[in-house]
Design a protein that fits this description.
The chain has 452 residues and is an alpha/beta fold. The chain has one domain: Glycosidases (TIM Barrel), CATH 3.20.20.80. The protein contains 15 helices and 13 strands. β9 and β10 form a beta hairpin. The chain binds 5-hydroxymethyl-3,4-dihydroxypiperidine.
Length: 452
């Protein structure tokens, strides 16, 4: 396998980007906070992670980076880095332990203080309302498969915005609906670990319905800068076999076009509906106008490309039995190919086909690296090279006129990488998961020089 490239500094600097272009870092609640602290309710990730076999090494987010107690030091590190913006998520189960009804005042206070702490350090707060830790009590009621969840989610959104909306720079309803639904209800990799096409299809509609209901309420509250964050992979057939071409078309349709289509065209892609219609909830068409309500921005998470083949013809399967083949390019510790041109291609395609003049932001991009702490340093030059290539891809499309307004590096610090536990390190800050000590890596210092 070709080696990842390494470099000590960025070849670009922020002055190469437009003056109002914003750089930031991204995290999520369950991955960093420590779910056992502060009176948070149980979430489906707490129970999924503590069931054997679901997470590498039986790890979970109960302590994570203990950001819940260490947030002030973390915010100081962000200030010293020189970022404009920070993207974080709130845990629904921390704010509303049962998902509905009573509010945990301590949880709400935590996010309120975090927002003030960011503003005191001149960092814009960008809130995501849902980054995967569904309160267990709602999971018991069917979670995303149950239409009622849309009202519960809208209620939670209203509570968060009533308390801190006046100080937020932007609000995203969801992070990565594909992961919430397909990865979690069809591939069985994330909580709740289902492998059921009906569950995945219904969940994918109910997540967008929940988004729509939350947006309607937040609009009525005159909350500014409402958006959503979708993940994309540059998805093409691995070879020129007919079966690979069809498998790639449907994989790409589900991954890249389903949520975009619902949100920006008010219609799911016909070629995918052909397969999934029997599993959509009755009357789904009546929700599409609400799902299509205007947004102020779209967040794009991008990491890699996907080369698709049909695993084997599968009698009786609803969908082609698609799987991914490894390509020839250098790979990160996630085994994801480094393919920066996928970012520029997707950004152009998204704005040309779905979003037009709507502002786009890269809300996540980064890599898991084989980092080593040696003599008090982590020399993650591969990460600097990876980010540099992707910054260049972003600059290229800005110069072509794509309305890209910001870029958040994933992630601010090493954290709980879901089913892969703590082994996969995405941070520009190293976290020692025994002592919880933070140590800026070479990429932090290089990014700081880039921003200076
Ligand atoms: O860690 C995740 C994050 O929670 C969502 N986007 C992808 C990241 C890396 O896998």
């Amino acid at each position: 396998m070709p080696a990842l490239t390494r470099q000590t500094s960025f070849s670009l600097s922020r002055s190469d980007f437009p003056d109002d272009f914003k750089f930031g870092t991204s995290t999520s609640a369950y991955q960093i906070e420590g779910s056992k602290f502060g009176g948070a309710g149980s979430s489906h990730w707490d129970t999924f992670a503590t069931s054997p076999g679901n997470v590498v090494n039986f790890e979970n987010g109960s302590i994570a980076c203990d950001h819940y107690h260490k947030w002030q030091g973390d915010l100081d590190l962000m200030r010293d880095l020189g970022i404009d913006s920070y993207r974080f998520s709130s845990s629904w189960a921390r704010v509303m332990p049962e998902g509905k009804g009573a509010v945990n005042a301590e949880g709400l206070d935590f996010y309120d203080r975090l927002v003030d702490g960011l503003l005191e350090r001149n960092i814009e707060p960008h809130l995501t309302l849902y980054h995967w830790e569904l309160p267990s009590a709602l999971s018991d009621l069917g979670g995303w498969q149950n239409r009622d969840i849309a009202d519960h989610f809208a209620n939670y959104a209203e509570i968060m915005i009533t308390r801190m909306g006046d100080r937020l720079e932007s609000v995203a309803t969801f992070n990565e609906p594909w992961c919430i639904t397909w990865l979690s209800h069809y591939h069985g990799i994330h909580a709740p670990g289902l492998r059921d096409i009906r569950a995945a299809t219904r969940a994918s509609h109910h997540v967008l319905l929940s988004h729509a209901k939350a947006v309607a309420i937040l609009r009525s509250m005159e909350q500014k800068n409402l958006g959503i964050v979708l993940n994309f992979e540059h998805t093409t057939p691995f070879d020129d076999q007919e079966s690979s071409i069809e498998a790639a078309r449907i994989a790409e349709g589900i991954y890249n076009r389903w949520f975009l289509g619902g949100l920006f065209k008010g219609a799911y892609p016909e070629d995918v509906v052909t397969y999934l219609e029997p599993y959509l909830p009755t009357g789904w068409q009546d929700d599409m106008a609400a799902i299509n309500a205007p947004l102020d921005w779209l967040g794009i998470n991008y990491y890699t490309r996907n080369l698709v083949v049909e695993k084997e013809p599968c009698e009786g399967c609803t969908l082609p039995n698609f799987t991914s083949e490894p390509g020839p390019l250098p790979k990160t510790e996630m085994n994801w190919e480094v393919y920066p041109q996928g970012l520029s291609t997707l950004l152009r395609w998204i704005s040309e086909t779905h979003t037009g003049a709507l502002p786009l932001t890269v809300t996540e991009n980064g890599m898991a690296n084989d980092d080593h702490l040696i003599d008090g340093e982590v020399d993650d030059q591969e990460r600097i090279a990876y980010l540099d290539m992707h910054f260049k891809a972003a600059l290229e499309v800005i110069e072509d006129g794509v309305p890209l307004t910001g870029y958040f590096v994933w992630s601010f610090m090493d954290n709980f990488e879901w089913a892969l536990g703590y082994d996969k390190r995405f941070g520009i800050i190293h976290v020692d998961f025994d002592t919880l000590e933070r140590l800026p890596k070479a990429s932090y210092h290089a990014f700081k020089a880039f921003l200076a």
